[in-house]
């Protein structure tokens, strides 16, 4: 898939940008703080309904503006053109497709964006929440029942946590329906997460091993969030006393995690910051390749400040791989990355929130 046109209003310093994008590589160059990353952020919003920048929700809106808006003409497989829009006023998001209001889930199901940016190393070194988001994004684009199942799971979890915080007696029958619901939904989530990771595994091994050959064979490990010895419902019932003491549910699909280990770096702490970034990039490329296999169409690839994250050799390898794939790529940098000079591209200059096409 690719964006033919992107229009952004009142997103950070981008008050009014209207771009025609090339189907291949698009490069946004300019000084730090000019607004380059905000272009990628706008594209990411259409796919995730959130920013890839941590703590960015309140800062998205341009100073003095009451509403932000992102509009795109998205060309999907078989040359199908779809018009998408996402707006935000106060704390409320509004999604539109072909001029009609839709829920956020319908919007993000249509637009797939994979992103590598300076904070991406958190996928390897950060909290488990980042890795669950990565995993669940992949499952969501395969299993359309995922979003509703995940929402039902979150509602049941909230209800059980509410009982715990109000100190309801441990033997109370009020716990039973919520624990039963949690266990049933957690089994569904766990099954599809495992299935997705098995499909991702060969792509992950190939992409990560190519970027970090010195670390040996990578190994993907998954933890579902509760023991295999008994059903989750039985474990939740037995765990009530401990959960009551800490005020929240300690077992379940919301505690799932996965990790990468290597022959020469069996623990995450053995990786340098540079190796964490390369491992995270390998994960992103693997997920993009799997998406292409499943849908016959690559997701849009966003690469923020690639030159500061990777050396020339790794940049050249990644750019060459993406150029060969035919994926649409949006990149940022303070200048044109040297490894890109041998590849066709369209370049935009960004200065104080204004974007000017150069090539």
UniProtKB/TrEMBL annotation:
<dbReference type="InterPro" id="IPR018078">
    <property type="entry name" value="DNA-binding_RecF_CS"/>
</dbReference>
<keyword id="KW-0547">Nucleotide-binding</keyword>
<comment type="function">
    <text>The RecF protein is involved in DNA metabolism; it is required for DNA replication and normal SOS inducibility. RecF binds preferentially to single-stranded, linear DNA. It also seems to bind ATP.</text>
</comment>
<keyword id="KW-0963">Cytoplasm</keyword>
<dbReference type="Pfam" id="PF02463">
    <property type="entry name" value="SMC_N"/>
</dbReference>
<keyword id="KW-0067">ATP-binding</keyword>
<feature type="binding site">
    <location>
        <begin position="30"/>
        <end position="37"/>
    </location>
    <ligand>
        <name>ATP</name>
    </ligand>
</feature>
<keyword id="KW-0235">DNA replication</keyword>
<dbReference type="InterPro" id="IPR027417">
    <property type="entry name" value="P-loop_NTPase"/>
</dbReference>
<keyword id="KW-0234">DNA repair</keyword>
<keyword id="KW-0227">DNA damage</keyword>
<protein>
    <recommendedName>
        <fullName>DNA replication and repair protein RecF</fullName>
    </recommendedName>
</protein>
<dbReference type="InterPro" id="IPR001238">
    <property type="entry name" value="DNA-binding_RecF"/>
</dbReference>
<feature type="domain" description="RecF/RecN/SMC N-terminal">
    <location>
        <begin position="3"/>
        <end position="332"/>
    </location>
</feature>
<keyword id="KW-0238">DNA-binding</keyword>
<dbReference type="InterPro" id="IPR003395">
    <property type="entry name" value="RecF/RecN/SMC_N"/>
</dbReference>
<keyword id="KW-0742">SOS response</keyword>
<comment type="similarity">
    <text>Belongs to the RecF family.</text>
</comment>
<dbReference type="InterPro" id="IPR042174">
    <property type="entry name" value="RecF_2"/>
</dbReference>
